[in-house]
Each structure stands twice: as structure tokens, then as C-alpha cells.
Amino acid sequence: MWQKRAMIGKERHGRPASTLRSFLASEAAGGALLVASAALALVIANSPLAGLYREALATPIGPLAVLHWINDGLMAVFFLLVSLEIKRELFDGHLRHWAARALPGCGALGGMAVPALIYAALNAGSPATLRGWAIPSATDIAFALGVLALLGDRVPGALKVFLTALAILDDLGAIVIIGVFYSHDLSLPFVGLAGLALVALYALNLLGVSRLWPYLAIGALLWLFVLRSGVHATIAGVVLAFAIPLRPANEGEETSPLHRLENALDPYVAFAVLPLFGFANAGVVLGGAEFSLASAPVLAGVAAGLFVGKQIGVFAAVALAVKTGLAHRPKHVSWAQLYGVAVLCGVGFTMSLFIGQVAFGDGDGAIAQTKLGVLVGSLLSIALGTLVLLSSSTQPEGGKA
Fold first, then answer.
1. CA angle at 220 for the pair 142 and 205, rounded to the nearest 5°
2. Angstrom distance (rounded) from CA 314 to CA 114
3. Neighbours of 327 (CB within 10 A)
């Protein structure tokens, strides 16, 4: 996956191609492994091995259980990689110009707002479940790009760039939501220590330090402080990413520290972190007592938010932006293809499951409904999105770059 077997287009002025651009040809492999790990978890959770599965995830290793090490520790690495890509695209990639941000930015906003409103409407009478309003607002970039990779030349390159940009901005929105709405019981001493670590990171940046180990060492301390502060620990990965320099490390070198770290993390996240996360979080007992009428609105809200809300929110926002002249439809991309991508944005597997864990914790009721809702909404989105893209024309009339 980390080998650049195909790209949507190289960056100008000799800049290295971004990691997520290289995903487009090989993401199918990582996505297939993620699907397999989630399917395996479902099988085990509904087999005689279910008790062993739950006990293994609850096994303490030091201060945290195995499940929390995955969700708070390994997922911080995932958020580090995602945030490196966000910084790369915003300052040195396709999204470095405001004009390029307009259309995917509108799509991302609509795709976050409408699913959240649908979930909130279906859970308005339950403050306990309303806490999960952000679950269907996130798009799983790995799965969405993986589907496009499987479709190959049937999908124009401009459409892949559009989905990449939209998913990146969607991830940025999810990060802000987690940091703002899902922090609790703040510990001011640890918040202060995290602030000092942040100052140290940016001091390294300002001093021109190009070696990665000082950033990673301080980043590990930052993760510990954030974990104890009441802010979700994965935010440490976000903060660390924006402190990594995005400039040539030494005269004559072709890549910056950010590119080196991004490329180094890529295979570990795709083939270890995300499959482990899927295996640890997708195991839901089908037909168990936790599927009560009291928690049914969670299932309905998540599934409807992903499958219905995402396609309506993304496509309506994109169409409005184009019709009002705020942005232009990508060249050689038809409205049918834009609608197909809007449907694919309803694949919310990794990020939606993660927000569900942050919102509801490890309880059996709402989190079980969340998992099933994510699976239903994501599978329906994959099926319809693929069908629309396969049946749409690859050479539409009109469209502007």
C-alpha cells in the first residue's frame, strides 16, 4: 500500500505525492483486511468464543485494558496519520488554494450537518442516546477510496480527487467535534502539562529541528498528559501532526520530516492499527438482550444518518455550491457520478465506530445499536454508491475544472 503504484496526479514543483493519493490504487487491500477483521469479530461475538473475546478485550495491560489501548493508544497513531495528511493537503497539496477547497468543503459541511440532524430528530426524546448525534457525521476515507480503487478507470481522476478532499475535510470536522464535544471532567494540571508539551513541540519546529525522534518523544508525553486531562487521548496525535515540519529537512533533500513520518506510518496504520480497531469494536451480539426498544432509536439514527443523511447532505450542498457559482463542478465529472460519491460518503465504519465508543463507552445497550447501525448504513451506502457509479457515464458533458 505504501508503494505509489498509482496516483491521481503528482504535485507540482517536484513535491512528493501525498500518501492518500497513493492509497487510491492500493487502499482496496487495506480496506479488505479491515472488512475481514470486522467480519471475524462479528462471527466470534456470536459464537461459543464470545466470552473469551470479551475477556481478552477487558484484560488489563498496565493502566489500561486491551480495548482502551487500541481505542486510546493505537487510534492516536491513526489520527496522527490522518492529521499529517490534512496538514499536507492544506498547506502543500490539492487543498492549498481556497478555490480547490470550496466544493469539497461545502460537501463536507452538508455531509456532517444533515446526518447529525436526522440522528438528533430520531433521538430527541432521549438525552442519553442524543449524545451520539455525531456518530453518522463521519466518513470512512479508507472504505470510500477503496471502493473507487476497485472501480478503476470507470471513475475519472477528478472524482477521486474530489472524494479525497471531501473526506480529508470531513475528518478535520470529526476531529474538531471529538475535541470540543466529547471532552469531560478536565484536569487543569494535566491540561497545563499538555500545553507545555505543545510549546516544546513548536519550539522544535521554530528552531528548525528536522529529526523526528525529538518530536515523537515529546509527543508520547503529550499523549500521556492528554489521556489524563479529560480530553480524548487521540487529540494528542492531531496536535503532534501539526507540529511536524512540512519543509525540506536539509538542502538538497527531497522530502520533509512530515513526509518521512507519513510514509513510515502508512503501512502500520492500514495493516495493523485499523484491522485491530475493527476486530475490537465490530463484535456485536446479534439478537441479544441489549437490542431493546429503548435503544432502537440509536440504530435507526445511525443507519438513517449514514445512508440517507450523507447522500442528501453532500449532494445538496455540492449542487447548491455549483448552482450559486460558489464552486465549479469538476471537469469530466457528471452529476450522476457526484451523486454516487455522495452515497459512498455514507460509509462511516472506522470514524463512526470510534465516535460511538467516545460517546457511549463500553456499555452493551447503545454501543451495540451503534455498531449494527454503522454496519447497516455503511453496507447500504457501498451497495448503492457502487451501483450508481457503475451505471453512470464516464464522459459527461459540461463541468469546469
1. 90
2. 9
3. 22
The amino acid at residue 218 is I
CA distance 273 to 13: 33
- What would the 3-class secondary structure string for 76-137 be? HHHHHHHHHHHHHHHHHCHHHCHHHHHHHHHHHHHHHHHHHHHHHHHCCCCHHHHCCCCHHH
Nearest to 30 by CA among 137, 138, 141: 141
Tally Cβ neighbours within 10 Å of residue 124: 12
Domain 24-182+232-281+293-391 has CATH 1.20.1050.10: no
The pLDDT, as a whole number, for residue 252 is 42
Residue with grid cell 479525497, as numbered in its chain: 164
- Whether residue 120 contacts residue 132, with contact meaning beta carbons closer than 8 Å, is answered with no
CA distances, 42 to each of 33, 54, 138, 175, 226 (Å): 14, 12, 22, 27, 32
What is the model's pLDDT at position 364? 57
Nearest to 137 by CA among 347, 383, 386, 380: 347
Cβ neighbours for 323, distance < 8 A, ≥ 6 positions apart = none
Cβ 258 vs Cβ 87: under 8 Å: yes
Cβ contacts of 293 within 8 Å, gap of 6 or more: none
Note the pLDDT of residue 35. 79
pLDDT at res. 25: 45
Give pLDDT < 50 ranges for the chain.
Answer: 1-14, 19-21, 23-25, 248-249, 251-253, 289-290, 293-294, 394-401
d(CA 222, CA 203): 14
Give the alpha-carbon dihedral of 258, 27, 386, 133, to 10 degrees. Answer: -50
Taking the complete model, does pTM exceed 0.85, yes or no?
Answer: no
Whether 150 contacts 23, CB under 8 Å: no
pLDDT at 395 (0 to 100): 47
